[in-house]
Records
---
Amino acid sequence: MTDAAAAARFNRGSQAPRGLLRLSDTVASSPEPWSHMNPSACSEARLPEADRINLAILALAGTATSTGLAAEHDVSRKFVYQQANKAGAALAEDARSARSQSPD
């Protein structure tokens, strides 16, 4: 079968040629396109600011593992690391600011 014949058969909606998949073969249909990419649908986006701060403090304190914190707050480990890095940067900036304002 030539490439053109295979493409024509594929476009007619018949069974995909061997080795080729249609998008509909691999992705479940959704009533709302791109709903899986909606940032408000993820648990990180719904986490209140106070909980983000507490999560960062716990991560910086080392009282629990990142995996444990992520599971407890229903977020990813990457999110735990991001919050800890933001909090660490804020603390470092505050320390620099305090040193520059203190009289010597």
---
Amino acid sequence: MSDSNFRPAYETVPGSMTSFVFLYGSLMRGFESHETVDLPSRAEFAGEAHCVGTLYDLGDHPGMTLEGNGRVRGELYRVTDDGLIQDLDRFERYYPESTDDSVYVRHLEEVVDRDLNAWVYLYNEPTEDANTVESGDWREYRSG
């Protein structure tokens, strides 16, 4: 992946709505990490949503890539706390100054069932040893 596609939290992107974040794994409602970063008081739940990509089982959490044309199911949030994105960057081990060393990278992606773009944390490591979550739905996968 080219570093030119990734934008630091403080950089604005003309014509995009950077006040949204798409979460597809352990940060969704009902998972422990949702409370760890105090999402309920820092972002407004805007509904379930989908992004194009592939979801992988990495053990305790999933990783999404832009490979393929499947749909990854997640939750869309409107960010209400300016510091949330930086805290999510730390949580996801995204280092804007060194994307090669990042476990996840934050990328602005289209939310396919909404007319907007949102920040998405994409897995930045090899996936050949990971199982694909065929349904694209981490919640369903973990409950089944």
---
Amino acid sequence: MAALAGLFADGRIVDLVLLLVAAEAGALWLWRRRAARGPTWADLLPNLLAGAFLLLALRAALAGMPWIWIAAPLTGALLAHLADLARRFGAGGVERQVGSGGELERRPV
């Protein structure tokens, strides 16, 4: 139990979660490559980056780093999130998931 507490105390737990995020990205890439379906990198990247930046901000906070090391990844997360929103809702459409395959369909607003 002390080892787990140590992982949280200095933020190293976030490193493990970031590895899981990277593994998820790799699995989605393989799925897309082999099945020729699923989300594209353009669809995934802003979302993955926003999450990774939030995790980096958490790690900096848990490690007791100065505020700038927390604010910088939070700013990155905001920019990635805005890019994701622009991609999803730009060009006068809204994406929604249809079918069991997870395909995205553009619908006018």
